[in-house]
């Protein structure tokens, strides 16, 4: 039997490049960032890596990273 | 455990909780209807790096039980996780209760955003007292049900409350649940930006305010004892809490509340704490 | 008796004749099929099936997990989960239980999971009634399940074993129907044997190492295709049922033809009361009437070919109705047959040989169009 209608395969960007949803872009101010990685832990989308680089293909611009950052090292810039 | 570029809303607490699932070995996820259904991916794609079995609402714990029974018989190591919202916990309450009473060897996770969000924010049994939803436009008049305490009353092997406001604590609880055997239940507080009407960047702040105001208690129950956990220990003492108004006033769903209403809610929360303290050995 | 079966019975391939109710016959067949997971919620008149299975497990005769659930919805959900993991599964229900698990019946069929369920058919309320009719099992018509209806305890035994084989061959769940009390609680001589069905097979199963989701939200043609594939495979299951009939008791495949060859008048029915109908046909044959019976052994896949081949006048006698018409009456009419229709026996109202003689004579003499035999 054809299983395809029942089975959905794991895919990065299952909903496409969700970066297009963004109104504001989080930008890391390197001079303030101490790489505590709190933003990485709390990013709902999981688009921040160990180097605190943001994957803008998928970042939806929720702004949680900006709010959680004690160093105030992330600012939200209008797209 | 969830890949970027999924369908979750901006600031979604469920997506964040799903990320923390990597603390659990050999997971198999059973998801009933709800936001998680959509977040986990629409056909032909899955946003999850782990196997997901989508099921109807009320069946979740029973399907999970069947999977685990079969895996045991077939010699497959697995942590079967019944992952549901508060809606599925409502409609599947009998199923959940039976699963707990049988001590099914599974993990049950309720990501509780305090309303039926996927159908457009209708009131659930978990909806906070007096909260506005589309089916309680004047504020919910009914009681708020406490699932975690009910699970303790089933003498479950592990019961924990957690919040997306403190992911280290949440991860530790996932890890512990994954290492234990028997019926394990984790109730996660999930502030929802569109449903509770606050800006998407405030999810964590509001989740933390819920804990700091005493509106959400953080505890774990195992070996027959309830212990307050993580930062939640600090707020067992009412003197350390922020005002409830601070938590409520940050959400659109409470914009209609008078100061009198908020006093009433403070009393409701105090009553809740009295019950929790009765279970506690701390 | 259990001990006897164990020592000299089916396991070495020999056949043993024992006195069993249809409930017990089904339990024996399930024991021989060796499912890994059984889940059930009791309901009259099905309960003795799962009670017997629970005893077999307790005594070590059957190595299966028995999950005690709080509802039929969960019974079907547990076997849905177990089947997804790759286990052979069984449940049983009746009446309100089937209605309560209805949602999950759609899901297990839509998920293409092999599973076997016994349905001791019983009236659905309101008002309350624990006796037999077919109003419950016909509920399954649109779900995609294979639906069989046995006439005797022997057939219930054989069909249950065939159900495991066919279901796992075509990846479609299989319901085995027996009538309440007149079969479920009535003992007959049954020959117990082991047709040795193959190990569990299924189109897919889900393991922790997999990286895919099953039954995600599916829109557009893919969803429609899943439903189409199920309909086509259900249709094609007829071939597997016919082909394997000889291995499972030689009951005739989708239908049994009784004194049909030269019949000018044909009665179409299903279930245990066909035994009484056959006696009535014998009586009428003795009186010179050229009448025969087409017994539907399956409601799904519907035996369209056998029905379309009928010649002469046709009467359908139903134990379940949709509107004023009987359900089988509607099904037979859909094959282009202009059938007369009688609805009888709802809620266990007794219909015996004399009643059938009366009904059949009225039919032959042209006095029936559509009527309820009250």
Describe this structure in words.
The complex is a heterotrimer of chains A (79), B (282) and C (374). Chain A contains two helices and three strands; from the N terminus they run ββααβ. Chain A is an alpha+beta fold and 79 residues long. Chain A is elongated. The model of chain A has no long low-confidence stretch (mean pLDDT 97). In chain B, 36% of the residues lie in helices and 15% in strands. Chain B has helices at residues 13-19, 35-39, 60-74, 86-91, 93-101, 147-153, 167-179, 193-196, 203-212, 244-248, 259-279, and strands at 27-31, 45-46, 52-54, 79-85, 107-112, 158-163, 184-189, 219-222, 225-228. Chain B has an eight-stranded mixed β-sheet with strand order 3-1-4-5-7-6-8-9, with helices on both faces. Chain C folds into two domains: 2-248, Rossmann fold (3-Layer(aba) Sandwich); 255-372, 3-Layer(aba) Sandwich (Rossmann fold). The chains are: A alpha+beta (79), B alpha/beta (282), C alpha/beta (374). Chains B and C meet through strand 1, strand 2, strand 3, helix 3 and helix 5 of B and strand 3, helix 4, helix 6 and strand 9 of C.
How is this fold's topology laid out?
The complex is a heterotrimer of chains A (79), B (282) and C (374).
Chain A: E1 7-10, E2 24-28, H1 38-42, H2 64-68, E3 74-78
Antiparallel strand pairs in A: 2-3
Chain B: H1 13-19, E1 27-31, H2 35-39, E2 45-46, E3 52-54, H3 60-74, E4 79-85, H4 86-91, H5 93-101, E5 107-112, H6 147-153, E6 158-163, H7 167-179, E7 184-189, H8 193-196, H9 203-212, E8 219-222, E9 225-228, H10 244-248, H11 259-279
Parallel strand pairs in B: 1-3, 1-4, 4-5, 5-7, 6-7
Antiparallel strand pairs in B: 6-8, 8-9
Chain C: H1 2-8, E1 16-21, H2 22-33, E2 37-40, H3 47-59, E3 65-68, H4 72-85, E4 89-93, H5 95-100, H6 102-110, E5 116-121, E6 146-149, H7 153-170, E7 174-179, E8 187-192, E9 212-214, H8 221-244, E10 255-258, E11 265-269, H9 274-286, E12 291-296, E13 298-300, H10 304-308, E14 313-318, H11 327-333, E15 339-343, H12 353-364, E16 370-372
Parallel strand pairs in C: 2-3, 2-4, 4-5, 5-7, 6-7, 11-12, 11-14, 14-15, 15-16
Antiparallel strand pairs in C: 1-8, 6-13, 10-12
Provide a quick synopsis of the model.
The complex is a heterotrimer of chains A (79), B (282) and C (374). Chain A is an alpha+beta fold and 79 residues long.
Give helix and strand order of chain A, one letter per element, not per position: EEHHE
CATH level-3 fold name of chain A? Alpha-Beta Plaits
CATH C-level category of chain A: Alpha Beta
Main β sheet profile of chain C: 7 strands, mixed
Q: Give the spatial strand order of the biggest sheet of chain A.
A: 2-3
Shape of chain A from CA axes?
A: elongated
User: Using only CA atoms, what is the Rg of chain C?
Assistant: 20 Å
Largest interface, Cβ cutoff 8 Å: B-C, 48 and 43 residues
Count of separate DSSP helical elements of chain A: 2
